[in-house]
Structures are given as C-alpha cells and as structure tokens.
Amino acid sequence: MWMLSPPGWQKLRRSFWGWIPLTADYLLEGLRGALWGWHVLLGILAAGAYFSYESCFFQLLHAGTWLKAALGSKFSPKKASGGTTRFQAISTALAGSIGTGNIVGVAAAITTGGPGALFWMWASAGLGMMTVFAENYLAAKNRARGRRAPGPLAYIEKAGKYGGALAAVYALGCCLSSLGMGNMAQMNAFAAACGDLGLPIPGVAIGAALLVYFVARGGLSLAGRIAEKLVPAMTLLFFAASLGVIWFYRKNLPGAVESVFQGAFSLRAGAGGTAGMLIAMKAGISRGVFTNEAGLGSSAFAYQDVRDYSPEELGCMGIFQVFADTILMCTVTGLCILCCGPTQLEGAALTFYAYRSALGQAGGWAVSLCTALFAIATVIAWCCYGREGLLYLTKGRGRKLYPLAAALAAFSGCLLPLRAVFQLGDAFNGLMAIPNLAALFLLAGPLGKAPAALFEKTVQKNPK
User: Fold this and answer.
1) Does the predicted model carry a pTM greater than 0.90?
2) What is the DSSP string of 99-139?
3) Which domains are seen in the chain, by residue range?
4) What is the pLDDT of residue 272?
5) Bridge-partner residues for 85, per DSSP?
C-alpha cells in the first residue's frame, strides 16, 4: 500500500495549512472591498463637500466661531441632566478618535500610499469637519428623553420609511466596529507597544482582555470621568515628543512637506501614474476616517447626555474633534515619520523607529506609553458606543453579553496580524458609514442654515 513518507506528510500538511491564511486574507479583502470600497469613501467625501458648500465653508471661514463655541466654556463644571459635563463629553469623543490611528493609522497610510497620503488625510478631515457637525447637530435635534434611540440612532431612525432598517444595520455595524476598529486595532497596537517594552505578548493579551472586560461593564459616565483625566495628559505627552522629533530633524522638514504635496498629485511613472495618486488618495481617506471617524456618526454617542448646550454648539465640538485629531495630531506624526527618512518598517514599528532615532530610548518609551494610553482611551469610548448599539438591537437585553465579546476581541486583536485587523476594522466601519450617510443625505435639508445661525448669534453677543 502506497504511503507518504514522514517528510512527505509534513510537506502536504504545510501546503494544506498554508492555504488557510491565504483564503482568509482573500475573503477579508473581498469583504473590505464590498463595505469599504471607493463607493463608500467617495460618499464620505461627497457628504463633507455637500455640507461644506451648504454652510458656505463654515469650518474654514469662521474658525473663530466654532473654536469659541467648542472651547469657550469647556472647563465649566456645570453638568447636564445625565451627569456629564461638556469637558467630559468632548474628552470622551476625543478619546474615541485620538487613538492608535494617530500612530499606527498614519504609518499605515504612508506605507501604503506614500507621503501623499498625508495630504488626503488633511483633505478628508477638512471636509469631514462639517460631516461631524451634521451628525452631532442632527443627533441633538432628534433625541428624546429616555434615549430609546441614543446618539446617531436618534436621527437615523427618522430617515424616511426605511429609517428603522437603516438604524438596525447601523447598530449592528456599531457593535462590530467597536470590536474591530475600536478594540482589536487598538489592542494590536497596544500589544506591539508592550512588546517593544519587553513584555510577553500572550501575557499582554490576557491582561488586555481582563482590562477591557471591566471597562466594558461601565457606561458613559465612567468613560467621561476617565477620559477627562487621560486625554489631556496623553495628548500633551505625545505632542511634546513629536515636536522634539521634528526639531531634531528640522533640516529635513522642508523636504518632508514638499514630498507630501508631490506625492498627493504625482502622475510620474515611478509612482504608478494615475494609479499611484489613487492609491495615495484611498490610503489617506481611509486612514483619515479611521482616526477622526467623520462619516461614522460615532461621536454623537459621547454627547447624548449633554443637554445644556444647543445642537449648533455640539456640532462645533465635532468640528474641533476632527481638527485636533487629524489636522494637529496626525500631522505631527506624519511629519515625524517623513523627516526621519525611508525604512522597511510598517505600522507601529515605523513610528517607534522615528521617535527612537531622534530621542533615543526615551523616545521609544514615550511613544510606547502614548500608544498604550491611546489604545486604552479609545477602547473605553468605543466600548460605550458598542454597548449602546447592542442594547438598541436587543432592546436592552444584551448588557451582560457585550463585555464578554469585547474581552474576546481584545485578546484576538493582540495576536492577529496587523493586515487582518485593518481589514476587519475597515469592513465594520463600512457597516456604520453606509446607513449613516444615507440618513445624512435624507435629512440634509435643515442643516445649511445652522452654522450661519450660530455665527449670527456669536456676532450679536460680541459686537465690534
């Protein structure tokens, strides 16, 4: 009887198991293409362009107005009826957006799309500011006491006769995205940061799962109390370290800035012609949404308990959120990476290298600590968002299930490869973006006059 020799069995086994990751990668890439392809990215840009046009580019021409509305009384201790201060709400929203995407996402965008991807992150953020304004404004205008439909679900439900179906799809996408982008992607970077500090990854995965389990059992009130202390500290630490790197490589700064604009519009054969520009555009827009969440509607969850401010003011907080996340934080990260020169690294390792090469071991420790803090802050916020989505789907009966799912996602995120984590995160983001964009366009009518009304109120209060 013919039998394979032991080496033959080993070869057959390797070839069989080798097909599994290839098949999984193929399926995940197909899922990402269907839910997060050009049609969704162009929809996000179209929404931002439409709301920018309707508001006469309020985010650009009246920056002083939205900055004052967002930050004018930010440190007021006054609490809303739900027990959340304005500072806690904006800190929670920033915790959800200023995450490891500012470290890993920027590095991934530059690795995939070249320096020009940073420009398209700026472009998507500039338009996305008004998209987030629209999301926060509509959520505040349509919310009701009792929060049967919290956050963005309040306006998605009212988007025509299919509003209920859109809300259900959005809630499902919110649950999955909170486990993908808001958890697995963050814990993947968290594990990389801990590994850089010499900690064993399996132990980190177990610790992360336990941490996320207890965090997921809390609510927005707990998230707000943690975020108001964590977000300012981690942001200042990362910004200071980034400025140190840029100062160290200050001679390379003009060339880095030039490469951003050249890469954004390069049609040279070396860049793949038009395809090269499109790759940079897609990478920048995709990773930009990964960091600032424009088009996902998620930040509206953070403000659902803030009732002492007008919908226009809450919209301005959304503009500031995108500005702080992408225009400030992602820019300094991207410039640090570009200034230090090309390497063969990717993801968090690329960012760690940039900071360590300029600031020595202290730079590596600083970015590792910031990565860990960013991951924890984002998971805290997104666990609240995901739990709200699950409670909406199950009519309040899924409260005990979500912490277990979040813990499993955190454990898996620490161990999965970076590419698979981003594929899942992008696909789940699409499940949120598609129904949210549909609702925004269906309810777009009253939004055009909202920023102008806020500007008129500001002028009346502060006449020259």
Assistant:
1) no
2) SGGGTHHHHHHHHHH-THHHHHHHHHHHHHHHHHHHHHHHH
3) 59-461 (1.20.1740.10)
4) 45
5) 79
